[in-house]
């Protein structure tokens, strides 16, 4: 069994709970309450800050130029299309500047930031990839489970299509292959980060309805 298949199986309960969570079901149906969507986007924008730094660490620690190019292309999408999605949502929802820049963070967001900092500071390519694979693989998974027409509001529809398109799917497949190639040398450390990331993803969605 490949490392990524083993990790996915070891954390199947949290993974399934997140991939089929009430939040993603409501998102795909276009019925997320506005207050819930707003809470999600404000916290996720703080997630994104460290996520960009983690991608930078992965680029710096990668063992080949093709890997750096691939990660850099993904980073370019995050810092353009995905960043402007957040800005347009904040405009539409009337989120003030202070809450875009410096909101009160939940424990879970703080946990995500600590996890990403730890992976980035390790300067280990495979540890960075282990964390990235959870973030992107889980979002690809729930987005691809949605097969109906996109919901009418851009706030819902674009968050789905950002995670359900051929470029994103290829990128996740590539992350999986990179972890299977480089992760076995650091299996315990990669597995621990992977498991923490999946548990945080589940909690991040749970928090929205707490
Ligand atoms: C919490 C979280 N996990 C994964 C993604 C996908 O990048 C995201 N935007 N937010």
UniProtKB/TrEMBL annotation:
Substrate binds at residues 44, 82, 136. The keyword Hydrolase applies. InterPro entries: Haem_Oase-like_multi-hlx (IPR016084), TenA_E (IPR026285), Thiaminase-2/PQQC (IPR004305), Thiamine_Salvage_TenA (IPR050967). Pathway: Cofactor biosynthesis; thiamine diphosphate biosynthesis. SUPFAM superfamilies: Heme oxygenase-like. GO terms for cellular component: cytosol. Keywords: Hydrolase, Thiamine biosynthesis. Gene3D superfamilies: Heme oxygenase-like. It comes from the Bacteria. It is an enzyme of class 3 (hydrolase). Its EC number is 3.5.99.2. GO terms for biological process: thiamine biosynthetic process; thiamine diphosphate biosynthetic process. The active site is at 201 (proton donor). GO terms for molecular function: thiaminase activity. It catalyses: thiamine + H2O = 5-(2-hydroxyethyl)-4-methylthiazole + 4-amino-5-hydroxymethyl-2-methylpyrimidine + H(+); 4-amino-5-aminomethyl-2-methylpyrimidine + H2O = 4-amino-5-hydroxymethyl-2-methylpyrimidine + NH4(+). Residues 11-181 form the Thiaminase-2/PQQC domain. Belongs to the TenA family. Catalyzes an amino-pyrimidine hydrolysis reaction at the C5' of the pyrimidine moiety of thiamine compounds, a reaction that is part of a thiamine salvage pathway. Thus, catalyzes the conversion of 4-amino-5-aminomethyl-2-methylpyrimidine to 4-amino-5-hydroxymethyl-2-methylpyrimidine (HMP). PANTHER family: BIFUNCTIONAL TH2 PROTEIN, SI:CH1073-67J19.1-RELATED. This is Aminopyrimidine aminohydrolase. The lineage of its organism: Bacteria, Pseudomonadati, Pseudomonadota, Alphaproteobacteria, Acetobacterales.
